[in-house]
Amino acid sequence: MLNIPSLKNKKCLIGKNPHHVAVIMDGNGRWAEKKGKMRVVGHQEGLKAVKKVVKFAFIKKLKILTLYAFSSENWKRSELEIKALIKLFLFALNSEIHNLTKYNIRLKIIGNLKHFNKDFQHCVQKAEEITLKNSGLLLNIAINYGGRWDIIQGIKKIFNRIQQKKLKLEKINENMFSQYLSTGNSLPVDLVIRTGGEKRISNFLLWQIAYSELYFTDVLWPDFNQYIFQDAINFFISRNRRFGG
């Protein structure tokens, strides 16, 4: 799993690496169309890029990597493409679970899974349980995820706690609210990477990226690799992060 090309010819800036990197993986379909192939081929190649990114995050000793795999808006795509995406996701879960365990990577799926069938939900639950005690890289995969949905479901959880008299309204603050989001009480996102040339957030981790550095690249996701990842990290290291100060 960890046999990746050396970065000896790539400049690596000296500084503090980000702890939490989130990636909007855009461009699979366009990559395939440019090559005269079906969009599903782009998603298959995109899975190879996912493996490269996870490997590199492991090597760089990142604490959290969050990947935007399927947004709540992606249901607007064709039924054929959606079925292919779900099938590919299940294949990746089953084929990579051994490597995740071997390299101490914990898997967490974030998003609204109620739209998927029981078999899909069971597969996700099983994969999370197998890697639950792993203490290395936390790999979040966002499936049927939307930032607005995440905030609303967090509000609903808090409201239920207040109704049950387990939480007082005056006790709610930003840190507490974060615990009710799908990412839980994890580190805030330091760096957001978006491939494919678009320069927007697309309803991704709206609360969690309040002070993230944003890195956009024209590279389509299937062509993303450890060298481009290092460029993004270099960009992050070069930034003077003032957090509004």
TrEMBL record:
What organism does the UniProt record list as the source?
Answer: Buchnera aphidicola
Which residues does the annotation say bind substrate? 27-31, 39, 43, 71-73, 75, 77, 194, 200-202
User: Which cofactors go with this protein?
Assistant: Mg(2+)
Q: Which CDD domains match?
A: Cis_IPPS
The lineage, from the top, is: Bacteria, Pseudomonadati, Pseudomonadota, Gammaproteobacteria, Enterobacterales
Does the entry feature the keyword Cell wall biogenesis/degradation, yes or no? yes
- Could you tell me what the cofactor note in this record states? Binds 2 magnesium ions per subunit.
Write out the function statement from the record. Catalyzes the sequential condensation of isopentenyl diphosphate (IPP) with (2E,6E)-farnesyl diphosphate (E,E-FPP) to yield (2Z,6Z,10Z,14Z,18Z,22Z,26Z,30Z,34E,38E)-undecaprenyl diphosphate (di-trans,octa-cis-UPP). UPP is the precursor of glycosyl carrier lipid in the biosynthesis of bacterial cell wall polysaccharide components such as peptidoglycan and lipopolysaccharide.
Enzyme active site = D26, N74 (proton acceptor)
Task: State what protein this is by name.
Answer: Ditrans,polycis-undecaprenyl-diphosphate synthase ((2E,6E)-farnesyl-diphosphate specific)
